[in-house]
Write a structure and sequence with these properties.
This protein is an alpha+beta fold. The chain contains 5 helices and 3 strands; from the N terminus they run αααααβββ. The model has no long low-confidence stretch (mean pLDDT 88).
Length: 126
């Protein structure tokens, strides 16, 4: 899924940045947002993407069940606020789900958020 690959790559680049101001912007976006889509918009995550791929990504984000959406926000917020290396992944699956894993401590502290959804083409508007 090209849209998911682009979104996760850009997300991980933003989350892994060493710029303190950039990290503060991400924390503020995650804290102030009421949905993953809103957080993505606040950090301009979909800017610069091919419009069809950005539309596909928006369609998926709009269809996240509330519990999954909030779990993603909470996991990202927690990882970033605690200074853990925080990453996002995507996996194609039949159901929409999120899997969060955490490992290590100190400088090796990691939080990984795996988002599982059907292929984005299933969410696009005709």
């Amino acid at each position: 899924m090209p849209a998911a690959q682009q979104v996760t790559t850009k997300s991980n680049t933003m989350l892994g940045g060493s710029d303190a101001d950039g990290q503060q912007d991400i924390i503020e976006a995650l804290t102030g947002a009421s949905s993953v889509r809103e957080a993505a918009e606040r950090v301009h995550l979909l800017d610069g993407m091919d419009e069809k791929l950005a539309e596909e990504a928006r369609a998926v984000l709009d269809r996240l069940p509330k519990s999954v959406d909030q779990a993603i926000l909470a996991a990202l917020r927690s990882g970033v606020e605690r200074g853990a290396t925080t990453t996002v992944g995507w996996e194609e699956g039949e159901d929409i789900a999120v899997r969060v894993s955490e490992s290590g401590e100190g400088d090796d502290h990691r939080v990984h958020v795996l988002v599982i959804t059907p292929h984005g083409r299933h969410f696009r508007r005709p």
